[in-house]
Amino acid sequence: MTDLPPDLPRLRTLETWLALALNQVRQAIAAAERREAERQRGLAARPPAPDWLIEQSLSRDVPPVYVHVGGCHMAGKRSKGASRDQALRALGDGVDACPHCRPDTELGVFD
After folding, report:
1. How far apart are CA 26 and CA 18, in angstroms?
2. Is the pLDDT confidence value at 18 over 80?
3. Could you tell me which residues come within 8 angstroms of residue 101 by beta carbon, excluding any fewer than 6 positions away?
4. What is the pTM assigned to this prediction?
């Protein structure tokens, strides 16, 4: 930096301002590190994704809409995790298999 003031009072003022700015940056870094550590703890504590999903219809009186492979991008918000037996039972009861993830193929169910 060649644009520094030549006199001592202004240099001391600049030094004070830089020390305060550096402290703020360090506090922001510490806060960001805490947030990242918390995010990592949350990811580690997250339960595993279910292997199978059953997507419910809008009405409780209507049977489920689809059976999905866990993690299917087409599964709706009304999908709930299911065991392998529940997914097989749902397919056997006439619930459609998702045409995108094909859980019937994954489960070994053929028409």
Report:
1. 12
2. yes
3. 68, 69, 72, 74
4. 0.61
